[in-house]
Amino acid sequence: MNPDQRALKDGDLDTREEHLYRLLDRVKAGGDESALEALRMLVRGYPDFHRSLYSRAMNHAEVFVDDSLAEPLLAALADTRYNCQAWAAMGCGVLRLRAAVPGLTALLERGDWMGQEQAVLALGRIGDASAVPELERTLWSEPEWLRERGAEALATIGGDEALAALWEAFEYRGYTRIGYVASALSKFAPDVLPKLLAAADDDDPDLRYWAAIALGSTGDESVVPTLERLMAQDKGRTEFDGWVSVAAKKALRTQRRIQAAIAGRSGGDGAQTGDDDDAA
Q1: What pTM does this model have?
Q2: Using H for helix, E for strand and C for coil, what is the string for 224-248?
Q3: d(Cα 145, Cα 70) in Å, to the nearest integer?
Q4: Fewer beta carbons within 10 Å, N or C terminal of the chain?
């Protein structure tokens, strides 16, 4: 056991935590091999280390986790006694570890909010379509942040099943404010455009409102005439006192911003897909 590994075992907890952060800094500064091995040893032998060390290390999983840690991450994901499943989920997400999908979906069923959040995030990163039914249930769950994370994960996974789940939440919404669903649906352009354009003509002003938001977030030039019409002519008002015309105006700003970013991308600017106002 090298001195870096020993320092994670010896001394009081504060001292060990300080050394952990020094190890992380050394890895970030230049891939220090001794520091890397110490951090990976912590994951491999996780039951022998304080949970605080494990969780603090896994908050930086992107820095040091590699394929050699797949088995201990799966073990920690299933280990309810060690009770660091949320942090193990982070590592599984970094590795995009498909073998973790059953454990992550099981974690969604627990009442631990952090475990649920990290499970959803990891499932989105892994991108396995088998997780779609479990993620679909999050769209009808409390609290709102869980629905939002679930919508993001479904959009990341993509595919017809994920689109159908999001469209059901959009069309037969159980909640008034569904900006997260509109944002997720925009990621399915151009395939989703006909459905969104049809929704922009629906009798329900709430559907028209959120259709406008989604259309703007696609950045597609073909949606501009519809958004301009809604902005100029639609006097509809939603259940939460939002105006369809205002949503269309915001959506046009979003669409133009995306187009400008695309045009300037050669200069290194990334595309923006919306702002806080667009999520209403």
Answers
A1: 0.88
A2: HHHHHHHHHHCCCECCCCCEHHHHH
A3: 28
A4: N
